[in-house]
Automatic annotation (TrEMBL):
Annotated protein name in UniProt: DUF1885 family protein
The species this protein was found in: Caldalkalibacillus thermarum (strain TA2.A1)
SUPFAM superfamilies: Rbstp2229 protein (SSF111171)
Recorded superkingdom: Bacteria
């Protein structure tokens, strides 16, 4: 997915997490605008929580600005940290790949949202990326493959 970025000479020794949109998900494919809307909803929810608590919770919950770089237009978003000592950056992109359907044995296209921690990302970035991954996976009722390789299921599973 981020091959375009890699080929542009940017240092991206990175870790990735994947939010996989499966048949049971609320959507079987997504685009960057939809992901951005979900992040904006997250910001809105944390802002309202902060208002209820009389605290600027949104600054702690989402310490980033959402930027769209021209080289990643339509392919990935860049979350730039507001406090470079604690939070530097996270990259979020969308893509698809051909996978083998376990039940039918047929190939099918599976869409995903990839969350990337570029080289130099902080522990704070990783914590926030895990939080955002869980939020997005829950919003899409998707399958989440975390940075550590573990899988979490947020969709209704067959008994």
């Amino acid at each position: 997915m981020l091959d375009t970025v890699l080929s542009q000479g940017v240092s991206w020794v990175s870790q990735s997490a994947y939010i996989r949109l499966v048949e049971e998900s609320t959507m079987t494919e997504s685009n960057l605008d939809d992901v951005k809307q979900k992040l904006e909803r997250y910001i809105s929810m944390t802002t309202k929580t902060g208002q209820q608590l009389a605290w600027h919770y949104e600054e702690a919950a989402f310490p980033y600005t959402i930027e769209e770089k021209s080289e990643g237009k339509g392919k990935w978003l860049y979350l730039k940290g507001n406090n470079p000592e604690l939070y530097k950056y996270i990259v979020i992109g969308v893509g698809s790949e051909t996978v083998m359907d376990e039940e039918s044995g047929q190939e099918k296209e599976e869409h995903y949202i990839q969350v990337v921690l570029p080289d130099g990302a902080t522990h704070g970035d990783k914590s926030k990326a895990n939080e955002f991954c869980k939020y997005l996976a829950k919003a899409y009722q998707a399958k989440l493959q975390l940075f550590n390789g573990r899988t979490m299921y947020f969709y209704p599973r067959k008994p």
